[in-house]
Amino acid sequence: MSNKQRKNFMLREETIEKINKLSVNEAKSKSEIVDLAIHHFYKNKEEEYQFFIKTLSELLDEKMKDVMEVLNKIRVTSNVVDRETKMMLEFWNHYFFIHEFDAIATTDKVKTDALIEAEHVVKKIISERRQRKIDKDVGRKNVASG
Predict the structure, then answer these.
(1) What is the distance between the alpha carbons of residues 20 and 14, in angstroms, rounded to a whole number?
(2) SS3 string of the chain?
(3) What CA–CA distance (Å, rounded) separates 15 from 85?
(4) CA 142 – CA 136 distance, rounded (Å)
(5) Angle at 20 between CA 35 and CA 17, to 5 degrees
(6) Side-chain half-sphere of 76: how many Cα atoms within 13 Å?
(7) pLDDT digit string (tens) for 36-84?
(8) Is the Cβ–Cβ distance between 16 and 23 less than 8 Å?
(9) Confidence band for 135, pLDDT divided at 50, 70 and 90
(10) Tell me, what's the pLDDT at 16?
(11) Please, which contacts does 41-47 make with residues 24 or more away whose CB atoms are closer than 8 Å?
């Protein structure tokens, strides 16, 4: 506190009264009271900032845990789909090789009744799985809120 400078400030009456009261109660000069008030203001501001950062970090960690869980499920599912797709490619390649096919009838040219039936079955399975997941999620939310 050796580098003090004289300054004149315009303050509200109630602020002056508070400075006078603190000066008497703390047995310190009015300058020291103002100096301490500014010091406490910045100290509290830094503590609030650190609390905010800590709280935000905890919230992000919590949300990231959920996101990572979902991403892990997606990764596992995509690995299974990728493996099964590669297996199907190998089977079809073998099938075409054994039967010496030169051309392929793509679905944009021809759709057999069997393919149409298979598409309906797959759509039904996907729809049922989606509904089970929705029912499961609704049940989980009801348990959490109940």
Answers:
(1) 10
(2) CCCCCCCCCCCCHHHHHHHHHHHHHHCCCHHHHHHHHHHHHHHHHHHHHHHHHHHHHHHHHHHHHHHHHHHHHHHHHHHHHHHHHHHHHHHHHHHHHHHCCCCCCCCCCCCCHHHHHHHHHHHHHHHHHHHHHHHHHHHHHHHHHC
(3) 76
(4) 10
(5) 110
(6) 6
(7) 999 999 888 888 889 999 999 999 999 999 899 999 999 989 988 999 9
(8) no
(9) confident
(10) 92
(11) none
* Token pair of 120 as six digits: 């309906």
d(CA 22, CA 30): 8
Please state, in angstroms and rounded to a whole number, the distance separating the CA atoms of residues 73 and 134. 16
Contacts of 30 (CB under 8 A, 6+ apart): 19, 20, 23
Are 49 and 60 in contact by the 8 Å Cβ rule? The answer is no
Q: In the chain, what are the domain boundaries?
A: 105-146
